[in-house]
Request: fold
Amino acid sequence: MDQGRPGGEGVNSAFNWLFDPDHWSGPTGFPARILEHLGYTGLSVLIAALIAVPVGAVIGHTGRGTFLVAGLSNGLRALPELGLLTLLVLLTYVGLLPVVVSLVVLALPPVLAGTYAGVRNVDRSVVDAARGMGMRGPSVLWRVELPNALPLIVGGIRSATLQVIATATIAAYVSLGGLGRFVIDGNNAGPGSPDGYPQMAAGAVAVAALALTVEGVLALAQRLVVSPGLRATNLVGKNT
Amino acid sequence: MIEFQAVTKRYPDGTVAVDSLDLTVEDGRITVFVGPSGCGKTTSLRMINRMIDPTSGTILLNGKDIRESDPPLLRRGIGYVIQHAGLFPHRTVLDNVATVPLLSGVDKRTARSRAAELMELVGLPSTMAKRYPAQLSGGQQQRVGVARALAADPPVLLMDEPFSAVDPIVRDDLQQQLLRLQSELDKTIVFVTHDIDEAIKLGDRVAVFRVGGRLAQYDSPSALLAKPADDFVSSFVGRDRGYRALGFLTATGIPVGEVATVRAGDAPERAREALVDGWAVVVDEQNRPLGWVSADLLSTMDKSVDTEALVSGGSLFEVDSSAGGTAGSLRNALDAALSSPAAVGIAVDGTGAVVGGVTADTVLSALADARSSGEVPG
Ligand SMILES: Nc1ncnc2c1ncn2[C@@H]1O[C@H](COP(=O)(O)OP(=O)(O)OP(=O)(O)O)[C@@H](O)[C@H]1O
Ligand SMILES: [Mg+2]
Reply:
């Protein structure tokens, strides 16, 4: 019963489970599960970005189809991921596809909204100058609007990634891998079992730790891809 | 040459921004569009590079209808400078300036070395090349904007209130620089402003627009000041137009009288003997003016004329001289006289050395002469 309560021995047993060397090797160990988890996440976010960045960019650039951004974002956000997954599994089959589709649906709105807002918010006088100097539409988008929109695009991708990492645990509901395995298996093992609550909690902690790590890596990546000129506040005074 | 032929622009909401405009912009000159807010200056300007297309009428650039040109290609041959510069925040200053050459297919190295030349031309130190626009002051950003517009060496330059967002001192600097650049480059410049002083200072020709997009008068600045076409123009040109018109009359040949001078460091007793009407100009070794000294002031100095304690002088009036100075205008001469504590304007030569003094009376009689000889219209 003690194990059902957070704190005290419960937390200790969770950490003991987490750091048990036996749980860090083989196809059911943490490294393998983390890789699976990252795989689902990476694949879903990538697909979402490949769809949402071009769509958001074109809508932001042309100003046409703006209603799509609001409508799509809200509509997709309203869908419960687990419900969607169950539905997809019932309609299709058990496997990677329904999982990835559910996660892509989750990742689309923040990337779409970030890209659209990023492109739309580029200073109008900058866009005007670009056109006035003789850039054609695609050049304006590619060389001026997108580079200036990068902070918001990357921001959208970061928040999508965080949500997908947290939600990718649902893969385990349909017998796939990932860190959700520990949560589901722990739950199935029942209270009192040494592989019960401690395993569940260890899985949850691992998901949180993974999310924080990935967030850190993406924050670094953002610094690398975004022009220093857009971090103006850090720059003023430097070099002067 | 840019020709507007019966050009009208009506926006979709029915606003007539430009109404049947006929106007010819001459090559190698600065033509200024001036007028109150909303009178269609920007619209007229942007029709030249097809950022806006007219509802009716024709615009010819060097005799060719601009509708026959592909807008991006047309624009690469026309420099464009806007109010807040519109620099690309994500690119360095150097890459901003290199934009149009790169667009036109020049290789990166050549474009960048061209950009570096342009930075020098507009007076930006090369240490700024690697900075980003956010690291520059407003005035520096405008310089970059001008350099960027000139980078591909376009024959035509369009400028939409480029200097209106900077403080008066920086603005004056930028205006002087534009005039200097223009004397070297001979571009065809169309310059939009709502500031009549700027228009008069920069323009070879000034087009005054009235609200509703109609051209009220198109003339040289001096003619505009001397003979405003109607009440609208005369009220727009402003109250001081008589005084400002003096700026267009050269003071060459007006009599420059003697002026009392004493050398810094002279003994006060000797200086006292030199005073005329109680005042004398104190000069340095090169005879350049340092300020004025009066009888009262001298009585406070015991050993020598103290340069720290002088009354500062008024503006200086430069007279044409063999040393290469430019002839000042009657306005300069009058201002020198009015701003001097001794009521005598200091006249200097090209080297800055004092050559004499002018009084307001001399200037006014020179003006009367100019009037009677018909030099001043009106
Ligand atoms: N896109 C537009 N749609 C409708 N009306 C417009 C549009 N752009 C400008 N106008 C109107 O056309 C008129 C002329 O505008 P324009 O921008 O050419 O004026 P301006 O002389 O440059 O004024 P300012 O000195 O304030 O810049 C104004 O009444 C303005 O409201
Ligand atoms: Mg305007």
